[in-house]
Amino acid sequence: MAIWNQIAQRSRFAFQEPPTLHTGQNDDMNNNRTWQAPAPVHNAKYFSASPTYNKWVKLTAADVHALREVPGFEGQNVYFHLNHPIRFVYLVAPIVAIHEIPNTKFLLLTLDDSSGACIDVKIERKDPAEVEPNTSNTVVENLNINTAVGYDVEVTIDGQKVDIASVIKVKCTIGKFRGVMQLELKRCGVIKDTTEEIAAWQSMSGFKRDVLARPWVLSTAEQAKLDVQIYEEAVQEQEEERRERRSQRALQKREEQRAAKRQAREEEQEKRRLAAERKYNQGALI
């Protein structure tokens, strides 16, 4: 774990929050704690232009616990660092605990990246009836959970057993359990060696320094450009919907025409059959 403490320490130095604002008359009321004005959150229609919204954001466990909810976005699994909207998290850390949740289909991996906090990663099993041969028994395609009576639970990633002290990389969505931040596993892998560990932490430190250390800024010109783009996409979507409706109407019309022709043929065949039947019946009476 020593390497993790060293790397985490370097990561903390590489990521500095913006300066805090002090209010003299309120400092005593807040036990001399500093106060930082949150950056304004942009309209949700601009989130797709954010450097974090559609990205696996590289964070530490402590960073995840520090994410905040913003009124108006509750229950949408969107959290914020400064004014960066974050939905997906990428985290690298050793496993420090593996525990099943009794009478549920969930298992928890507790990760400790030496950032000052641990984080639980929830893994969901599939319904046994839905598990096909040679496939994962969880919703993560390369992770399996093996449980045998009288034995500890065994977790494998890409066929490799992982246990306490195994270092893994996880991609997760964010949730909460009883008010505490929790991650829900979507993808994962095993960190092979110290070189890969250090590279992962350096990449995270760089992203935090270059992106997360300052608020996400959208100029008026950028917002105007995005408004035009959003409008054009809406117009294009409406046109595609109109084309689809026209195509559906045309398909329905062709089906109706084919049905009408089929019915006409059947009626004509029935007329011929009745005419032939009358002819045969007339001949039988002579």
UniProtKB/TrEMBL annotation:
Single GO cellular component term: chromosome, telomeric region
Ranges where the record places region Disordered: 237-286
CDD domains per record: RPA2_OBF_family
Basic and acidic residues composition bias: residue spans: 252-280
Keywords: Chromosome, Telomere
Main location: nucleus
Source organism superkingdom: Eukaryota
Protein location: Chromosome, Telomere
Pfam family, one: Stn1
Isomerase found in the keyword field: no
Domain CST complex subunit Stn1 N-terminal: 76-244
Listed name of the protein: CST complex subunit Stn1 N-terminal domain-containing protein
